[in-house]
Write a structure and sequence with these properties.
single chain, OB fold (Dihydrolipoamide Acetyltransferase, E2P), Rossmann fold, seven-stranded mixed sheet, 8 helices, 22% helix, binds S-adenosylmethionine
């Protein structure tokens, strides 16, 4: 097999990144954009010892599950990778992927994976977007740092698209390297312009003041608020949350309530528990659950998010929460915890956090994960003392291969 060779092949399944998988002479071939049961022709573009990657040239036999992607940039843009697959099939793929990862990396019985939860908003759901700027404004191309110019992104909120299009008119685009736009269910909007040279602040105001509620400049490692409060307010259920410039907030406001309600169900709180919320962001989960616990201790590394969390507790009239700023992996003090929630970034739990959980032995751990592979790894590490009872996938990122999961782990009985 050589680079440039063209083959006809049948796609048998999708890999965990949503790429089609076929075989030629028993070698695995990954083909982006191809779907199971399709017969395609494809050109080899990467040829390694154990696998190859190919670029699809033509669909010879089409899958019934294929749909026309609603996006003119689909072929090039590195964003959504499943826009060409029926939404029901996307959800089935994600649930199956969680099961396969469990099967591969753990002894957890994959029948514990429940049906996927989803919201009906499968387009225009993202409340945050980061656009790259270099002569053009858009997203990076697949596997490249070239920019695909974007006029309308199908998965970001409409007000983000509107602000983006106003930004594209700016006469001083050449000093901007990145534009971050955030919005909320209340359509409270924030933009951050990352610049590599000083910028005329009056010009920025002239062009954007009517379009964005608050705007910050990020220059030489420092933020400066040009107007507005420097934060936005979003809601989840009956709660309001302040979100500062670099604080994490779940990016799909439509599906977040489903996620948090599942966390609440799994936590099964009676009102007497000390709840520990590790990787707590702006304190959202602890505040969401506060009514059914004695107290909440949140831990978060980002100091702005911790300040938001404290203000969010006040704003929602919650007095039973305490938030610590620091690295969860370096928690020194002895903490009593009846129930622990962990919601780490994609890399999953540091081994110190796994050790902390195994020593602290809460009765239940609720693990919220945005990467099913690291979730599977960590469930196996925790399995010395914890049985994984249930995992519910949540479709937080429709039209992409990503899936959020909530897992319930219970302390095993020791004799
Ligand atoms: C996936 S977010 C979850 C936030 C929150 N639970 C929510 O639902 O909005 C992960 C959070 O962990 C924080 N974080 C990342 N590494 C950390 C660490 N080593 N120690 C403490 N917090 C960390 C991030 O700043 C981020 O706010």
């Amino acid at each position: 097999m050589e680079i440039g060779d063209v083959y006809q092949l049948e796609i048998t399944k999708l890999d965990h990144k949503g790429r089609g998988i076929g075989r030629i002479h028993n070698k695995i071939i990954f083909v982006s954009g191809a779907l199971p049961k399709e017969i395609i022709s494809a050109k080899i573009v990467v040829n390694k010892k154990k696998y190859a990657e190919a670029e699809m040239l033509k669909i010879i036999k089409r899958s019934d599950e294929r749909v026309e992607p609603k996006c003119p940039y689909f072929e090039k843009c590195g964003g959504c990778d499943l826009l060409h697959l029926k939404i029901e099939s996307q959800r089935e793929f994600k649930r199956q992927k969680v099961k396969e990862l469990l099967d591969h990396f753990t002894n957890v019985n994959c029948s514990c994976v429940k049906p996927i939860l989803f919201s009906d908003s499968i387009y225009f759901y993202r409340n945050k977007a980061t656009f790259k700027v270099k002569e053009q404004v858009g997203y990076f191309e697949k596997k490249s740092f070239q920019i695909v110019p974007i006029d309308q992104c199908q998965i970001v909120a409409e007000e983000i698209n509107d602000i983006l299009n106003q930004m594209k008119q700016l006469p001083f685009l050449d000093v901007i390297t990145e534009i971050i736009i955030r919005t909320s269910q209340k359509k409270d909007t924030m933009a951050i312009l990352k610049v590599n040279k000083s910028i005329d602040r009056h010009e920025v105001k002239k062009w954007l003041k009517n379009y964005v509620n608050t705007l910050l400049l990020y220059e030489k490692g420092e933020y400066q608020i040009l107007w507005g409060s420097g934060y936005i307010i979003d809601t989840i259920g009956n709660f309001q949350f302040k979100i500062s410039k670099d604080s994490f907030f779940q990016i799909n406001s439509f599906a977040t309530k489903l996620l948090y309600d599942k966390v609440s169900e799994y936590a099964n709180l009676k009102g007497t528990e000390q709840l520990v919320d590790l990787y707590c962001g702006t304190g959202t989960i602890g505040i969401y659950l506060h009514k059914n616990v004695k107290s909440v201790l949140g831990v978060e590394i980002n100091k702005n998010a911790v300040m938001d969390a404290r203000e969010n507790a006040n704003m929602n009239g919650v007095s039973s929460t305490q938030f610590l700023c620091g690295d969860v992996a370096k928690l020194k003090q002895k903490i009593h915890a009846d129930v622990v929630i962990v919601d780490p970034p994609r890399a999953g739990l540091d081994h110190e956090v796994v050790s902390f959980l195994l020593q602290t032995k809460p009765i239940r751990i609720i693990y919220v994960s945005c990467d099913a592979a690291t979730l599977a790894r960590d469930l196996e590490l925790l399995s010395t003392f914890y049985k994984t009872m249930e995992i519910t996938p949540v479709d937080m990122f429709p039209n992409t291969h990503h899936v959020e999961c909530v897992a319930l782990l219970c302390l095993k009985e020791t004799s």
